[in-house]
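Changelog entry: the Chorismate mutase record was regenerated in this release. Current contents:
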Amino acid sequence: MSELEDLRKEIEEIDENIIKLLSKRFQISQQIGKIKKEKGIPITDENRESKVKEKWITLARKYGIPESFVESFLTMIFSYSKLYQINPKSKRRIVIIGYGGMARSLSSLFKISGQEVVITGRDLKKAEALSSEFNFVTMSVDSALKWGEIIISTLPPSAYFSDFMDETYKKMKAKIFMDITSSKAKIFKELEDKSIKYNFMYLSIHPLFGPYLYPVGEKVVLIPSKTSASIVRDIYEFFMDNGLVPLISSLEEHEKAMSVVQVLPHFYLLALSSSIQELSKELGIDFKKFETTNFREVYKIINRINEIKNVILEIQEHNPYADKAREFGVRELNNLYTQLMGKKNDALHS
Ligand SMILES: C=C(O[C@@H]1C=C(C(=O)O)C=C[C@H]1O)C(=O)O
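Regenerated structure tokens:
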């Protein structure tokens, strides 16, 4: 055998060992998951993750492996390790109304946690396309509402004022109903009123993650309404059991928080996106050719934002603190501008 072949053989053996060890690590993680379930503690333990990461970085230095490799590898290990810990106490009958990115993300989560899911909506062909991805079932809206116990609507805010939803509310008696919108000010009261009128339990939720698959360990905000007091505990446990980290909030606190974590950064990023285009055009520069590591990361986020621009603009429009957030954004940008321009002028005059 040539030297090249010998070395490749050695690599293959090492690869097998890596896989064996990973499998062992995931099995242990599964055991840890069972203990956490018994004790009612959440799957994600950020303290522990920091400790593990510290250890990995020390070892990486010791063995001469780049820290950046270890960091991205470990991030993947954590997220798959947590997948192995999902093991819900009970199976619930969940109906998802809608078939967009968030419906897909929630479906992926419920698939690994073994929930029973039916996908429905106005367009049953689209519902069927999503169902088949996860081997779930599609039903007409009427049948789905009869069958289901927990109804999660992934529709945009405007949909809650449509004839379609008007008909749907009437068929949800005694069911648990959730919306997942980012800006709730406009719809919360409407849905709360409808839940009183038609006797369903309305618990507003906001998954704090984008349309990604297997969002294990991510947060979901729960905003109780007048009709959901009796089920908040149950749904809190349900989400924890399915691998998310639930967080209870009031409507007002949630809207304020979203003006800080969504409205403001999205506002800057949209402006950053267009100013990058404009400035590079003005200067005749192909910025992709010169991108730095930081720029690459920022641009990834800009691309993600542009992909869901309609949702982003909806949040800008509906969040009640959006005007304030944008005012602060512009004010601080101007302050920085004045400060930096001032420095430049000082330098010129000295
Ligand atoms: C395995 C655990 O669960 C999660 C996964 C971890 C891991 O894979 O190392 C660490 C912390 C937790 O977020 C644990 O708590 O130890």
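The chain has a mean pLDDT of 95.
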